[in-house]
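Hi everyone,

Forwarding the result from last night's run.
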Amino acid sequence: MGNIQHVTSADFDEKVLQSDKPVLVDFWAEWCGPCRMIAPVLEEIAAAQDKLEIVKLNVDENPEIAASYRITSIPALNVYSGGQVVKQIVGAKPKAALLNDLADYVN
């Protein structure tokens, strides 16, 4: 089951855009309190299913990727499938709300 990996601008295309299954990218930063709040929730979701890959991208270390997807507020969760953004979730949410938003990808 899923371990959350960190991606960077160097491996974003390979691990996210070219993945054969949907990938949720958690755009986050060290200083972001809400980002830290949802991290354990995302780890629980990753551990409980294997249909959706979950990765983290630090926006401070990879600003070009964040800018290219117009990430202006974090935490931002984008689901990519077939190289395209198919779902966007902005802000911290409780686990039940996140699972509801991600139902098409985790069930």
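The domain at 5-102 is CATH 3.40.30.10 (Glutaredoxin).

Cheers,
N.
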